[in-house]
Write a structure and sequence with these properties.
eight-stranded antiparallel beta sheet, alpha+beta, globular, Alpha-D-Glucose-1,6-Bisphosphate, Chain A, domain 4
Length: 162
Amino acid sequence: MPAEKPRAEIVPTNHEWRRAGRIVINAPIAVIFDLLADPRRHADFDGSGTVQRQIKGPLRLSKGATFGMAMRVKLPYTITNTVEEFEEPSRIAWRHLGRHRWRYELEAVDTATTVVTETFDGSTALFPPALKLINAYDNNQKAILKSLVQLKIIAEELAASI
């Protein structure tokens, strides 16, 4: 019988402009945080299919750091993100020009297991209702679940090689 594909769960936010998901990853918290803090790896675990690659910025993120990404939604474009939260190894968040935020919160269960919650926060956007018009809330909810599964696969492979 094949192994069951990992799944992330939707986390209710009780907020009109936020969407979140959670997954348990069998990897140390530092391994996962290092992946999130490396913008060169973001395309590897992006569940939306829009992140293509890093085009500028540091090798490791820090609070206030900016990093540019090549993106694609039907047509290619670039976007610059700014890290707004950086609390190693438990929290990292960034936003771009529209000011909506992507946040990862990590909680170590033990030395080899971590719960990761990803949140898309449109409440910080310049005009949150506009994101609803382009279906950003529903699309990001789906992308979060896919991103978390990809992050789990990558982090667990890394942890197994240590």
